[in-house]
Predict the structure.
Amino acid sequence: MSIRLGNSCINCENLLEGNTCKVHGVKVGNSYTCDSFEMKAALKDDTNCITCVRYESSDCANPQKAAPGMSCSHWAPQNATA
């Protein structure tokens, strides 16, 4: 089974302010998705050490090299909010 971070209501064009779906008219969260899902045209492009959940933690893959502005293949988002 594939895991897709971007395939949730948080990254859907139908998400309104207050986490309300404009298609279904209900409050949704970041684990929701549906058949009416429409991916936002662009996501934030700030994938670097500062926005990584592993930055300055014990599970950082490169603790001696991690620095602001740097990125690596082990990057994981701190949050997935719109």
User: Anything to note?
Assistant: The chain has no helices and two strands. Strands lie at 15-16, 20-21. The chain has two domains: 1-41, 44-82.
